[in-house]
Design a protein that fits this description.
Blueprint: H1 5-21, H2 38-45, H3 54-59, H4 84-97, H5 101-131, H6 137-164
Helix pairs in contact: 5-6
Length: 168
């Protein structure tokens, strides 16, 4: 098939994840070579995205499509320019562009962390009033506040990725 077993397994996992998270099915195991009608090209060109997850965008317009099956031969010359770091980035781009669920998950994690920090603040406050000192709880509380900041950054990053595809 021309691809390593690791690449085939990770691609299979990616398509299972994205099709579970996305409301729009992304066809599995399809190549990037396509014969496309002008109407489809015009619809895709209307989109404002700068970073495009093309496998999802080709599925998005809703036009009729047909798949032609063929055997992929191994690469005859050269090396792929898609290393695993780039492929992971592409996978994250696809998931955040075609699903709002990661944003909701990050928002939920931020809310849980915020609630825990608020509870911790009350504990520190009560302990200080009753026993006259924080005894190290204040530093723990501050670590909780830092965690909230990290979650906020993660949510903003996911929101940026999701709004790029118009999911929100």
């Amino acid at each position: 098939m021309g691809e390593s077993w690791f690449k085939r397994i990770t691609a299979s996992i990616f398509y299972k994840v994205i099709n579970r998270l996305s409301d729009m099915p992304i066809p599995e195991n399809v190549g990037d070579f396509r014969l496309i009608d002008r109407r489809v090209v015009d619809e895709i060109n209307k989109l404002p995205e700068r970073t495009r997850f093309m496998k999802g965008l080709f599925a998005w317009p809703g036009f009729r499509r047909t798949t032609l099956l063929f055997d992929r031969d191994p690469r005859l010359a050269g090396q792929t320019k898609w290393n695993y770091t780039k492929l992971v980035h592409l996978a994250l781009e696809g998931i955040t562009s075609f699903s709002i669920r990661p944003l909701r998950l990050a928002t939920g994690a931020g809310l849980v962390t915020s609630l825990a920090a608020i509870i911790m603040a009350f504990i520190v406050f009560a302990k200080t009033l009753m026993w006259g000192g924080s005894g190290g709880w204040l530093s723990l509380y501050n670590h909780g506040r830092v965690a909230i900041g990290r979650n906020s950054v993660a949510v903003y990053w996911l929101a940026g990725g999701s709004t790029s595809a118009g999911c929100l």
